[in-house]
Fold:
Amino acid sequence: MNKKEAKANRKNIAVNKLKSLGDMILEDVEKNQVPSIRVPSRGTSNIVYDDEKRYYVLGDRYGRRSLGNVKQIKKLAQMVYIANFCKGLMETGKTATLREMYYVSEGWDIDFGDQQESNIVGEDLEVTLGMTREDLGLMPEEDGASVYGKLKVMEGDVEIDAMRSGKSGYTIPPSIDEVDFVEHDVKRVIAVETMGMFHRLVQENAYKKFDTLIVGLKGQAARATRRFLKRVNEELHLPVYICNDGDPWGFHIAMVIISGSAKLAHVNHELATPDARFLGVTASDIINYDLPTDPLKDIDVLRLKELLKDPRYKDEQWKMEIKKMMKIGKKAEQQSFSKYGLEYVVDTYLPQKLEQME
Amino acid sequence: MNKKEAKANRKNIAVNKLKSLGDMILEDVEKNQVPSIRVPSRGTSNIVYDDEKRYYVLGDRYGRRSLGNVKQIKKLAQMVYIANFCKGLMETGKTATLREMYYVSEGWDIDFGDQQESNIVGEDLEVTLGMTREDLGLMPEEDGASVYGKLKVMEGDVEIDAMRSGKSGYTIPPSIDEVDFVEHDVKRVIAVETMGMFHRLVQENAYKKFDTLIVGLKGQAARATRRFLKRVNEELHLPVYICNDGDPWGFHIAMVIISGSAKLAHVNHELATPDARFLGVTASDIINYDLPTDPLKDIDVLRLKELLKDPRYKDEQWKMEIKKMMKIGKKAEQQSFSKYGLEYVVDTYLPQKLEQME
Structure:
């Protein structure tokens, strides 16, 4: 199956799953049974860290939504309306944001109290069908990361060169699964937390020096970014390194890319990149490179303690770095390497760290 | 003078201004005078709304920083260090973020208490030289807006086509003044507040329908975005329309593009686009299009009252819309047009509003 077929297939699967949801309800009606559907539970007790997969997954508990239960009638009807809306999107080749869907629903015969309510039913649909909502045409508001380097992709009929999209790079669109990788001439991917660091790496020709794609995460990685990193890792077999601020928040931005979030346990199989690796800034880096630091705040220490208990951080390396950070009581930003000059991070730090890791 | 010369000229002016700052100090020393420099005041009493220019400017009050004043010695020395750092950036063709500069300063013989302090001295330099800090090589962290449509630009040797940079568009880089406009085939620019609306306009082919560039502001417009809008308006003679949420915050995102901010009075001549126009969502739109609304919160009403007193809103049309919004007590988001279907905003609302305005 070539790429075009795979993509069409992905879309067909979505349409078919939506249809079969409707069929199930119709069948019940035809058999004079009370229609009901199975919705996997998203309660915390059904969210499990899977040691083998190395990310959170949903357990096998589920609930039933039945038209025989007065409390559930509305929720089930809402889900059918949303499924129908998504089917329409698929058929017209359009997408919509959750916000747009909420407003569109004003014209439906069933209402949502607020957008929160329609979002939750959207998630219910996602988990019921086992697909991401992007596959159903429901896109997040926010775009993904910026990408710079020797990568060519196709969006529809347009070929895009991530070396010729401007110094701020190619922006990963919410509809990243519609994008095909055409050609690349890189050996790895380095993702950095801030656009300040992204521009530094572009300016110092890091893409050439390290044969790398440079990805500017812009803080917590958007869903589209996580999907992109998973795809370059698995489809193009490129190792992914993440370089963030040396504090619990930087750690966790990396970890959500690596092992997914608990909240999205039902779609982590599409988003998590368990083989992605945290390059730095580690507590050891703070010491070894004598970086300018800020003292840890109470909230940082609290967060570090939480991370220690988090199954995603069970690796000895992580535990050691978290404990070391608590011991020195300091954190450092990734831009703090500038203490040694603007070029230092590319000329000295990254080569040393990459050598250690590869 | 062609574009290349103009750009080189811009850079030369910056270098020369930096040099003459140093010369002034040296001359004083040679004449056995106590060195001092004139720094225009940025105090609120020196920020004036200029009726003719239609944006905030600095008045003609200024202070003197003198090495004869113990309190000012450090500030003046800090400014000289920063000026020297900027000169280095110009000469090597590099840029740095304010954050990087702060960390670089760790290696200087003079210190800054925190980044806040180095930022302020950076602004002092900006106002003293009458140039933006981008002209001095000091870039903001954040990128600008996304642009989609028939526009080709040059960044260095790379030609970029804003129709072929992906569905999420061409990202305006912080160094927008290094960008040349090469070719365009549009009659106007429509800037929208959210990326949700940006993707809607791209998807509904609004760029074709209205011969327009589509600009996704991502909330409050970054400096690079404001500079871009000013440049397309003045260099390419394109009318600029801004379509935001119908609330005081949406109004003000537009107004800062149009008439600049008080805080940046010293660089508004580079950033403000007085001929840009607010297309909607207005209070009248909320009524005429019977949009889904939310009630105004106390903080919205407070803000609307502030806007009424703001000289930038002295136009009768603005005053009427602000009062009308307070009267109906309601606000509406730009995506609320989806009530009438996803296409409505492009098929009905925008054509009607553009006809009214053109």
Q: What stands out?
A: Chain B has a mean pLDDT of 94. DSSP finds 13 helices and 17 strands in chain B.
